[in-house]
Design brief:
With 331 residues, the chain is α/β, with parallel strands linked by helices. The protein has a single domain, classed as Alpha-Beta Barrel (TIM Barrel), CATH 3.20.20. It is 36% helix and 16% strand. The radius of gyration is 19 Å and the shape is globular. The termini are far apart.
């Protein structure tokens, strides 16, 4: 089975698999990482035609890029490889802030290339916007990486509409990565119209609401002890908010049963139905969940289906902010 392709961006276009794979959870955040299971999942993804892989230097920290690099070492030509810089972390995992300075851009890229074991990155994102550095300076340094052949396409993550416009004026931005799912739709007001006006593709991360839309999470205690979703950093998974949000998931599951698919497949199919310029990157560290996600490509949603989904999960029905601390999000 192979997936279809979609093209991100019109000024600096990058053709990728219609569904990508977020690799973060293979190393950190969602419970215990398992390197071999992660490598097996990436290999299976490539076999299934899921060739758009997403990582970042801060995942692990640093270990996720090495894992991805190991997994693709003999299959580099099949892969559209995306990584990110800007969230600075120490070797001990400490968070050291955001850095968008030109010097850091260059240093971070060289370090990522070395960890990944590749000579170029297909799509290089600024992971978070640095409020202390004009976006024109950051993009100028990223443009230098393109001119040097180290990077082919540029992207932004969690950038506001104004920042996107200013960045795109320096060098064409191929993709914006930001959170988008049935549970997170605030970008529809200003950001989505802006990227479409400028010809920039959209790469939704957490298209399954950090896993809650799969129906696999039944309670707070169903998460692993080390899972960051158990903490206040993710308010939607706490107390009464979780109960309210699980009630919405139950409605999604009902509709999925009617369609003969899983709740997660229905939720992913909804994201995919938002436009051919949208390429979600659901993350998983297990082959079986990857295979389930790929099945979403075969779920065709009619206008009636879409209306029923909108009715079941009205925009704004979700309880809780997506992060406990939204201070790093460019608004």
């Amino acid at each position: 089975m192979t997936t279809s392709t979609r093209t991100l961006g019109t000024v600096s276009p990058l053709t990728v698999s219609a569904l990508g794979l977020g690799c973060m959870g293979m190393s950190e955040f969602y419970g215990t990482g398992d390197e071999q299971a992660g490598i097996d999942t990436i290999h299976r993804a490539l076999d299934l035609g899921v060739t758009f892989l997403d990582t970042a230097d801060m995942y692990g920290p640093f270990t996720n890029e090495r894992l991805v690099g190991t997994a693709i070492s003999s299959r580099r030509e099949q892969v559209q490889l995306a990584t990110k810089f800007g969230n600075v972390r120490g070797e001990d995992g400490s968070r050291l802030g955001i850095d968008g300075s030109p010097e850091y851009v260059r240093r971070a890229c060289d370090a990522s290339l070395e960890r990944l074991g590749v000579d170029h990155i297909d799509l290089y994102y600024q992971h978070r916007v640095d409020p202390q550095v004009p976006i024109e300076e950051t993009l100028g340094a990223m443009k230098e990486l393109v001119d040097a052949g180290k990077v082919i396409h540029l992207g932004l993550s969690e950038a506001s509409a104004e920042t996107i416009r200013r960045a795109h004026a320096v060098h064409p931005v191929t993709a914006l990565q930001t959170e988008y799912s049935l549970f997170t739709r605030d970008l529809e007001d200003e950001i989505l119209p802006t990227v479409r006006e400028l010809g920039i593709g959209l790469v939704p991360y957490s298209p399954l609401g950090r896993g809650i839309l799969t129906g696999a999470i039944s309670s707070h205690s169903s998460l692993e002890e080390k899972d960051s979703r158990r903490t206040g950093y993710f308010p939607r998974f706490q107390g009464e908010a979780l109960e309210a949000n699980l009630a919405l998931v139950a409605k999604v599951r009902e509709l999925a049963d009617e369609k003969g698919c899983t709740a997660g497949q229905l939720a992913l199919a909804w994201v995919l139905a938002q436009g051919d310029d949208v390429v979600p990157i659901p993350g998983t560290k297990r082959v079986r969940y990857l295979e389930e996600n790929v099945g979403a490509l075969d779920v065709e949603l009619t206008p009636r289906d879409l209306a029923a989904i909108e009715e079941a999960v009205p925009r704004g029905a979700v309880v809780g902010e997506r992060y406990g601390d939204m201070s790093t999000i460019d608004r």
